[in-house]
Amino acid sequence: MPELPEVHALTVDLNGRLAGRLVERLEPVSFAALKTFDPPVSAVAGSTVERVDRHGKFLDFVLRGADGGELHVITHLARAGWLRWRDAPPPPPSGKPGRGALAARLVLDDGTGFDLTEAGTKKSLAIYVVRSPDEVPGIARLGPDPLGEGFTLEVFAGILKQAGRAQIKGVLRNQSTIAGIGNAYSDEILHAAKMSPFKPAAMTADETVLLYGAMQSTLRGAIARAEGLAASELKAEKKQGLAVHGRTGQACPVCGDTIRQVTYADSSLQYCPTCQTGGKPLADRVLSRLLK
Fold it and tell me: Which ranges carry the Formamidopyrimidine-DNA glycosylase catalytic domain (predicted)?
């Protein structure tokens, strides 16, 4: 799933490609992906792209409609969605497997543009055509952006205090608490901070400072590696930059211990026992509660 660093890099890349361009049409292919009906998709035709914004993991294409009004085409790529830029007019949808099913297509006046695709059978990619980002329920519920100017150490400390005994892994990836951090970067942040994913969120002042610093350095480091890359390069860059997430059975790059995982119904987390849990493996079940 694309998280804050990848979505940030997409906004930078797409701003360079789209700002000031004229949109010929937005063409939904998977109508299950389109979550709105007013304004209609046809309202996008003839609009001009003003900029591309990010809200947590949401991409926001800000358009000036042909009637002068502002429109937003917003997408959440979910777990298996992706954006693929096209430098040529689009071919007819082929339906061939391998690169993901086509969910929607945005075509500019010269035929270039991008496709939104989604792999797998569970379809969660979402597209919204709205007049304001706040009309998208997921955006309206978002917590503060961890890289925003207002996200200070004091704000973070307040979030942790309010979360109380909740596991810190879940707090970090709860979009209503902090926007943009998902499964992968929560693993990476906790590894950098040398904290168990099951540690309670309410922690000492020194631990809060440590975790805040790990969050900032992990996310900003990932952005620095991803910024300037094209969409086609971002997945490989993310995978190469991860220390523990998705690396079960490999050696920890810090201490050399074997990276382990805990599996849930629809996801898993990875961690280093030596770095994060005092050398003790976590039980691989949902009710594990090893602290420190």
Answer: 2-125
Closest CA to 156 of 174, 176, 173, 178: 178
Higher pLDDT, 230 or 238: 238
User: Which sign does the torsion angle of CA 212, 150, 144, 63 carry?
Assistant: negative
Which residues are within 8 A (CB) of 256 and not within 5 positions of it... i.e. 6 or more apart? none
For domain 4-140, is the CATH number 3.30.420.40?
no
Domain ranges for the chain, please list them: 4-140, 153-276
Closest CA to 268 of 155, 157, 186: 186
Sign of the CA dihedral with 221 first, then 17, 85, and 46 last: positive
The pTM score is 0.91
**pLDDT digits over 9-20, tens only?**
999 999 999 999
Question: What is the spatial distance between Cα 136 and Cα 286, in angstroms, rounded to a whole number?
Answer: 31
**What angle (nearest 5°) sits at the alpha carbon of residue 97, between those of residues 266 and 226?**
65
Q: ω before 144 within 30° of 0 (cis)? A: no
Mean pLDDT (the chain) is 92
What is the DSSP pairing of strand 268-271 with strand 260-263?
antiparallel
Q: How far apart are CA 203 and CA 211, in angstroms?
A: 10
What is the assigned CATH class of domain 153-276? mainly alpha
The tokens for 205 are: 């002042």
pLDDT of residue 235: 86
Please choose, from the candidates 171, 139, 154, 130, the residue with its C-alpha nearest in 3D space to the C-alpha of residue 55: 139
CB crowding 11-21: b at 16 or more within 10 Å, else e:
bebbeebbeee
Backbone conformation region of residue 278, classed left if phi is above 0, alpha if psi is from -120 to 50, else beta: left
